[in-house]
Structures are given as C-alpha cells and as structure tokens.
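Quick check before the chapter quiz. The format below is the same one you will see on the exam, so make sure you can read both the input and the output lines.
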Amino acid sequence: MNAPDGFWSFSTGVYAGEGVPAACLAFQSEGLDVNLGLWICWVAARGGEPLDRLDAAMALSAPWKQQVVEPLRAARNGLKPAPDGFEGEEAQALRRAILKAELEAERLQQARLEPLGLACRPGDTEEEGGARARAEAGLRRYAGTQVDRVRIAAFAERIFSALEKM
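Here is the expected output.
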C-alpha cells in the first residue's frame, strides 16, 4: 500500500472510495474532526507513528475547526433548505459558494497539519496489523471514550480499503 505523498492528495483520493463519504459523515456526527481522522490514517499509511504528534495536531486543529470550519458548515446547512422567503437559485448559489469556502478551509487545515505528519517518527514495523493498527490506536486516542472501538475500526476500515484501491 502506497499512500500519496501529500495529505490533501491522500484525502481526496480516499474520499472517492466506496463508503468513505458516509464513514466521514458518521465520524463527524460524533463531534470529531474528519481532517484529524484522515491525518491519523495518512501518517500511519505513510509508515509514521501518528501518536508522535497527535497532541500538536489536535491543538492546531481545534480552534480552526471551531472558529472557521464549523461556522461555515452551519451556514451551509442553514441553507438546506433555505429559510422561508429565501428559497431559490440565489440561496442555492450562496450554499455552493459556502461549500467551496468550507472545502478551502479544510484544505488549509490539512496544509498546516501535513508538516506535523511528515515530522512523525517511523512506526513500529513489527507491530501486528502495521499501518492500520497504528491508525486505529491514534483514532482511539483522539476520540477518547467519545466513540466506541467498533466505530473507530469501521472508519479506519473504509479509509484503508479505499487506499488499497487507489
């Protein structure tokens, strides 16, 4: 399995995989940052140890998610459907523009996370399960007790299945 070099390339590539959008939405519905989940999987797939820089990645991402990504998402979702009196093509054009801004915000977040991932020390190559096991350990640490192991494993399964088909 060869992960694309760039984090954004990895993310857009695996997102096109079967079941990945739904897995990402389920992850997000738990209150988790999909970009962090993808970052953990990307680092592990590249042979790194995501736990090495996970705290720094979380600290970097939390204010961006709270102050930029979530308000954009809320505005976009507020237009689906548009409030009474604001229906129509103009509202949908605004919704598309907000989606574009939301995706750009996520790309910027990933651009800031990428150097942290590149700085992670190599993972234990003898570890049973390899990259996926490192990813699941990172995802469990990130999610804490908020998400059960089955959901974490399902997210990792979707990402790594998509990666194998890239």
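If your answer matched, good. The mean pLDDT is 91.
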